């Protein structure tokens, strides 16, 4: 088989690998693609008779890179046919059977179509060089993309670079050629108490990695994600890292609907160890552990509560710091509960603009109604709930009856049409 010599190929691959911080395999793949584009340019230059090459015309060609011999070959996969219509894609059965008698129509063979060294041409070589630069950039972007896809859902260190509209463009470190990769921190993912000065560093949650059309991967990071809170506690509390304490649920309101209400998070923790206090482990001695998390989140209020398999206990804990008198699971199937609190605890249980009860409902998954224990009429409330449930059941029954009637009417119409047809016959 012929070969086009590339003196110094081995050394060149090593230098490019070191310069661009790419694996040798990635450099070789980029070089193969570039040489194939150069061969394509060479073939197009040969056909000056306005022959139209389709976009996928060269899909059956490939470059075999021989690093040891420092050169390359061009190979073409051709289909065996009776009559050859296109010599680039087809080869006659008669021609193949001269060297392989067992060949049959429809089989494929790989042939060496490497051009002569001199014929490859200066223009093709220039094209190869240009494409190689582009392919190396593409390989870098691909590796960076794969690197950050593996890091999706983790917390990284980021540095504020600039502002675009309401987003903050941040820099993340990458190990593949790019010392920094840009990521977007959208307005909805920012914290109201953060001060995004240029070159200020933050811990961010890598929320999403999208493939960018031109500038490599598009990364979306967040300071408002619940995942950031989980990471900060796991990083600060050894018992969580050792799986002695586990985080069961997190409800976070990093960007409250009103500017008069500050950010707040509720986190439910549990343990299987009798001698371990999971809440105390997360708070730390004199609040030392939770204070580190609060400082990173710029003063965000955090409630750490004990999870319980008993819904009543869990809901009562979730409404902390309010003191709950009684929890009534008025509609367990619909996960609806009435919470009875003293009058002086009403505002605390509801929270500023309903934030406390809203977060408790999200944390537990129950619909929570706060009631004044002194004014609560349990029988009247129960009648209201039963009436509401009955009304919902009646609506479902009416919908079912309407569906049945429609089905019967359709059946009658079909039967009548069939009878009419038979009479006409």
From TrEMBL:
This is Transcription termination/antitermination protein NusA. Its main location: cytoplasm. It comes from the Bacteria. GO terms for molecular function: DNA-binding transcription factor activity; RNA binding. The gene is nusA. Keywords: Cytoplasm, RNA-binding, Transcription, Transcription antitermination, Transcription regulation, Transcription termination. It is found in: Cytoplasm. It holds the Pfam family KH_NusA_2nd. It comes from Symplocastrum torsivum CPER-KK1.
